[in-house]
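HUMAN: Now follow token order:
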Amino acid sequence: MLQNLEQNAPKKLVLKCKTVFDDIMIFDAETAEEFLQEEFNRRVRLNSRYSLRAFARLLGISSGSISEILKKQRPISLKNASKIIKALSLTTVEGRKFIELVQIARIDKNDVVTQNVSTVAFNIKKKNLDQDTFALVSEWQNFALLNLLDCEGFQWKRKYIAQRLGITVYQAKFAMDLLIRLGLVIKRNGQINGAENYVLSPSGISSQAIRKYHRQIIEKSIEAIDFQGVEERDFSGVGFAINPTHLPQIKKEISAFQDQLVAKYSKGKKQEVYFLETILFKLTKGK
């Protein structure tokens, strides 16, 4: 395996400690019980009088049950997992991860799991774009504008959007009008909001519009090599030999990785829009 990393890039510093104000991330936990214990500990650090009974009341689970769960004397049922996800306001991706940890623990105990993850805990809130709609919004600035909505100090003004995205005022106005017309941006009582949590291209569909979109993003990444410092970007790649029959699973894992990054880092105040374009392609030719 050959890994290609950019020269002179700053070393990454991994901080092992957390302040009491840090969110306990489900992706940092090895088990669902560990996640719940850390969440309870965090609340105790913020309020020394916070009790296990109060935590149980928040989760909608009896204090005896939550005590046994934290001691790993009782498995978390899928019904209680649903309550926990709702009580702690976990995002769709975080909820999926929590259910996954619960199911793994139940399987390890030879407990048969028969219920579907997506129907137990939550409904996935996504806006699926058909191929025709995607063709209309496939210019990179349209998707960038949807992300820019979440940035601190955002203004629904043509000049502001043009300046922030490095496009013309005309392009900004066209993008604003198009997104509202398609219902991807909703303007109500003077407030601007994205219609859905996620906007997806038609999965697995190859079209000229989709190829054009990815080509534009790759071109923007090439610009970043020349005009952005290494402290603002990260370029790395890895080459490895695989069995092509594993490609469907590799694609699923890439998608899950992207979802985890979005869930973990799209919280709190945001100032900039970043694009992560994951590229997996074949270098060898022939058979």
Summary: The longest strand covers residues 2-5. The beta strands are 2-5, 127-128, 185-188, 191-194, 199-200, 236-239. The domain at 26-121 is CATH 1.10.260.40 (434 Repressor (Amino-terminal Domain)). The chain has two domains: 26-121, 128-265.
